[in-house]
Amino acid sequence: MIQFSYTIRDELGIHARPAGQLAKVAKSFEPTVISITKEGKTVKASQLMKLMGLAIKKGHEITITVEGEREEEAAAAMKKFLEENL
Length: 86
Prior knowledge:
This protein is of the alpha+beta class and about 90 residues long. It is built from 3 helices and 4 strands, in the order βαββαβα. Strands 1-4-2-3 form a 4-stranded antiparallel β-sheet, covered by helices on one side. Helix 1 (about 15-25) runs antiparallel to helix 3. It starts with a strand and ends with a helix.
C-alpha cells in the first residue's frame, strides 16, 4: 500500500472535467484500487459521482491510497496528474 497527501491548488477544486480525467487515470490501473480521502470520507477514485460528492475545493488536503499489483506505477501517475492539473 502506498499513501500520500496532496493539497488542491486549482481555484475551482476538483470539478467535473478534472474529476472525469482523474477517474479515467484511476480506471486505467484496475484492478489496482486507488482511493481518495477527504475529512474522513473515502471513495474510489474511479467512481466519478462519488468523487464529485467529496466536494473538494482549493486548499483542501486529500489523501490518496493505492493498493494492488501496479501500486508504484499508479501512485506515480496519480501524483503527476494532481501536480499538473490540480
